[in-house]
Specification:
This protein has two domains: about 5-135 and about 280-325, Rossmann fold; about 140-275, Rossmann fold (3-Layer(aba) Sandwich), CATH 3.40.50. It has twelve helices and 13 strands. The strands form three sheets. A seven-stranded mixed sheet has the order 3-2-1-4-5-12-13, with helices on both faces. It has a four-stranded parallel sheet with strand order 7-8-6-11, sandwiched between helices. Strands 9-10 form a two-stranded antiparallel sheet. It starts with a strand and ends in a 9-residue tail after the last helix. By secondary structure, the protein is of the alpha/beta class. Helix 5 (about 105-115) links the parallel strand 4 (about 95-100) and strand 5. The chain is elongated and about 70 Å long. The chain has helices at about 15-30, 40-45, 55, 80-90, 105-115, 140-160, 175-185, 200-210, 250-260, 280-300, 320-325, 330-340, and strands at about 5-10, 35, 50, 95-100, 120-125, 165-170, 190, 215-220, 235-240, 245, 265-270, 305-310, 315-320. Bound molecules: 6-O-phosphono-beta-D-fructofuranose.
Amino acid sequence: MKKIGILTGGGDCPGLNAVIRAVVKKSSKNNWEVLGILDGWKGLIEGNVMPLNDQHISGILPKGGTILGTSRTNPFKEQGNVDKLLKNIKKFKLDALIAIGGEDTLGVALKLFKMGVPVVGIPKTIDNDISGTDYTFGFDTAVSIVTDAIDRLHTTAESHHRIMVLEVMGRHAGWIATVSGIAGGADEILIPEKPFNIEAVCKNLKARHDSGKKFSIVVVSEGAKPRDNDHFETLSEEKDEFGHVRLGGIGQRLAKEIERRLGVETRFTVLGHVQRGGSPTAYDRVLATRYGIAAVDLVKNEHFGKMVALRGYKIVPVDLNESVTKLRTVDMDIYDIAKTFFAKPEDE
Ligand code: F6P
C-alpha cells in the first residue's frame, strides 16, 4: 500500500486531466491511495489537498484545464516555504510525489529530489520546449487550434487583400509557430530562435504581393525579436515567481511596421490563452494517459528523480536533470521545411 501525491504546476494545458485520471486509475489497481494537491506547489506549502478516487476522475478525460488547479508558485522563492512543504509531505504520509509541469515545476521537482523527496516528473506544456522528450502533451492541441485560426485568417485575408499577422505563444521556443505555420501554409514564420530582420521580412512580403498574391499570413511567436534590437515586447514589467516577464505585443508592433513600410493594410490577431483552453486532441489524450501510467510504474519501481518521456514511439524514463538544464528549441530541419513556403525564402 502506497500513498502518492499528485500536483499540476505552471500554465495549464489540455491533457492534464487525462494524466490525473490515468494516475488515479492505475494506482487504484495497485490498491494505492492518491492525494490531489491543489494549485501546484502552493497546495503543498499550505497543506491544501483532496483525496482522489474513481468518482473524481469520472468524465474528466476530454476536459481541458486541471481539476486540481494550478499556480506559478515557486517554493524556493520565499524563505520557510520549503520547510512547510517538507513537513506536509510527512504529515500526509506521502510515499511519492508526481509533479506534472514544465521547466519551472520540473526544476522544483529536481531540487526537492536532491533534498531526498521521492519525486517523478511528467512533462507538460503547449510550448513543447522540454528537453529529453520528443513531445509534451498539450502541444498537439495548441497546434490544431492555431492551424484552425490560420485557415480562418486565410479566407478573410484573401477577400480583403490584407496581410494578417498572427501572434502565438512560445516564450523561448517557436514550436507552435513553426509547426502550425507549416500546417496552415504561413508565408512567414518568426520565432525566438531566429531574430528577424524587418527589412527582409517586408521585402519578401512585397515580392509575394508584386507576383500577384494580394494577401499574406505571418505567424509570429510572442518571444520573437528583431535582429538589431534584443528588447522583448512585454505587456508589463511584472514578473512571476520564476522570473518570467509577461510577453505580448510583438504581433501588433510587426503589423504596424509592415503596413508603414509596404502600404498594404495589415491586421494582427493575438490568440493568447485560447491556445491553452478546451478539450485535448486524441493524440494528447493518449500521450497524457501513457505518461500517467508510466509515472505510476516508476513509483512502483522506486525510480525517483526521473521524468517520463516520449522517444520515438516508446515511453522511457529520463533523468530530471537532463530535462531541466536546457530548453528544447526548434529543430532547424523543421524550420527549413517551413521556409520552403515562405514569401521569398532565399532572401531571409
Ligand atoms: O504555457 C506556457 C505559456 O503558454 C507560454 O508560452 C506563455 O508565455 C505563458 O505560458 C503565459 O502564461 P500565463 O498564463 O501565466 O500568462
